Amino acid sequence: MKLRVTPISRPLTGRYLPPGDKSISHRLAILGGLAQGETRISGFLDAADTRATLTAMAELGAAVEESDGLICIRGGRLKAPAAALDLGNSGTGMRLLCGALCGHPDLVGQELSLVGDESLSGRPMARITRPLGEMGARIRTVDGHAPLGLQPTKLRGIRYVMPVASAQVKSAVLLAGLFADGDTAVIEPGPSRDHSERLFPAFGVELFDAAPGIGVRGGQQLEGGRFHVPGDLSSAAFVIAAGLLAAAEQGIELANVGINPTRDGVLRILRAMGGKLTLSQAEPIGNEPVGSIKVQPSALTGIDIPAEWVPLAIDEFPVIMALAAVASGTTRIQGAAELRVKESDRLAVMSEQLRRLGVRLEETPDGAVVEGGSVRGGQVDSAGDHRIAMSLAVLGLVADGPVEIDHAEWIRTSYPGFVDDMRSLGANLEWLD
Ligand code: S3P
Fold it and tell me: What is the pTM of this model?
């Protein structure tokens, strides 16, 4: 479907609440399905990716009930599903589930298959099958890609030094470690989001310090509990970007935004670009820090983004590139080759789409150099990537004519309410077919 964004005729105003955090929702669906007893979740992200993980857990035997926005999972006993588990577009769902299932004692001796859509089937899986294989897991891939064929078996703990900072790899190995003999530890080259480490103890799982990494002892029981999912900073990032470009002077107020320090790179980068963001800490939700953010219109300036901030803002580079296109001066992104193996090759796709809107930039092997200026209206394409679609939509607010985004329906994977939320702030977005 095509989404048309008409440049703003009056500044954006209002209060905004982001949808539930995608990473935390995936983890709660999986941990809730693995845990004994009942897990009650409010604020679970209702989007295609997290639904796919929840459905997979139900197909694996967890009892999942929903009423009034509350999800109740009764887990603890898994069975082999009748058919392949379809994780759709979701790398987190596939990688974390693969870790959780490949040594699960209830599944030993069974065969399972994990499948995904075309984008997911093109993403690298060797990054998880390598360490899981070292633990003894039997996982078939097609040249290092999905579909994955699992033959769950007894695992042994390992100490794994990760070549790239990746919360999905770290979490997959730790989840497998729950069912392994002995200790499993992961050591990252730099910090990645730590939601798994924050959630494990809430399910009664003890982690140990494996400095400079983190470890889990095998054979621990998980116990369900009550959880609330904070708002997703990665979804809020589109509204933050919209506010910086097009808010009224008094700003837009965002509340209930997750501000976990392993995820807040986007705030650091946008502040360094001159973004007026006023943060107030609120009560944490569970183990997760949460805040309110006031976003005021700002004159942005290009910067050299420090490579050590990249993993802390890994999902926000499409929207950061969009903002760089209308900042004054040059923005340099480096150390971001991981962007090439996301839902699309985000460096290549964003570069091509921005060029269509008249932006001058150079794509490099691990980043881009974006020359800021103004953007014109035009036709662009999401290339099946939700975050590309939303980033281009934000840029459409300040283009010199309408921006029409093909295949924008992919927004549903992480943020089905995006168009309505933007409209409620005064933006003019409409579906064309
Ligand atoms: C995620 C980790 C990141 C991120 C993804 C969600 C997670 O992926 O890009 O959207 O929930 O663990 P990588 O682990 O590949 O960096």
Answer: 0.98
